[in-house]
Design brief:
Layout (H helix, E strand, L loop, with lengths): L3 H31 L6 E10 L8 E5 L14 E9 L8 E11 L6 E10 L8 E9 L4 E10 L6 E11 L6 E10 L1
Antiparallel strand pairs: 1-3, 1-9, 2-3, 3-4, 4-5, 5-6, 6-7, 7-8, 8-9
Subunit structure: Homodimer.
Family: Belongs to the plant dirigent protein family.
Pfam families: Dirigent
Length: 186
């Protein structure tokens, strides 16, 4: 038994070397994490132009149930959008990006949209970056809050919220201009 003790001690020593190296690596990684950039909070404001009527539509119904037309909320309709985002509410104001994605009417008793949209910026400091929003939009409420669930470029790993307010809505056509204020942590 006494002959095996030095052998066991040697095996323990050899086996602990990779662990000790890993420990040093962990210290190095901890130091690196400490030097990483702090999170930034960015506030954005822009206008979303959703045109569902006429020749130059920016949102098109791509699917619906057989009962959608009978529903006052168009329950079951699915719309694909590529809407302009502008600095101001005037459709001719400076284009800052595009809202691309889809939304569907998910409420049987209220006009409630489930939105999965990517807000891709095409000018300024955020050119090439995007913010993703996924959530419920109670379209007839004066103020709605939607979650920011991600982003790309400057907004990689983004989280936050968007406040949406209808600026203009045409009840006969369904066309709308919606103001968005976003608070994004990235």
């Amino acid at each position: 038994m006494a002959k095996f003790c030095p052998l066991l001690f040697m095996i323990f020593l050899v086996a602990s070397i990779p662990w000790a190296r890993g420990f040093k690596l962990d210290k190095h990684m901890a130091k690196k994490l400490k030097t990483q950039k702090k999170e930034t909070v960015t506030n954005l404001q822009f206008y979303f132009h959703d045109i569902v009527s006429g020749k130059n539509r920016t949102a098109i119904r791509v699917a619906q149930s057989a009962d959608t037309e009978k529903s006052p909320t168009l329950f079951g309709a699915l719309i694909m959008a590529d809407d302009p985002l502008t600095e101001g509410p005037d459709p001719k104001s400076k284009l800052v990006g595009r809202a691309q994605g889809l939304y569907g009417s998910a409420g049987q008793n209220e006009l409630c949209l489930i939105m999965a949209m990517n807000y891709a910026f095409t000018s300024g400091a955020y050119n090439g970056s995007s913010i993703s929003i996924l959530g419920k939009n109670s379209a007839m409420s004066p103020v709605r809050e939607l979650p920011v669930v991600g982003g790309t470029g400057v907004f990689r790993m983004a989280r936050g919220y968007a406040i949406a307010r209808t600026h203009w809505f045409d009840i006969t056509t369904g066309d709308a201009i919606v103001g968005y204020n976003l608070t994004v942590v990235h």
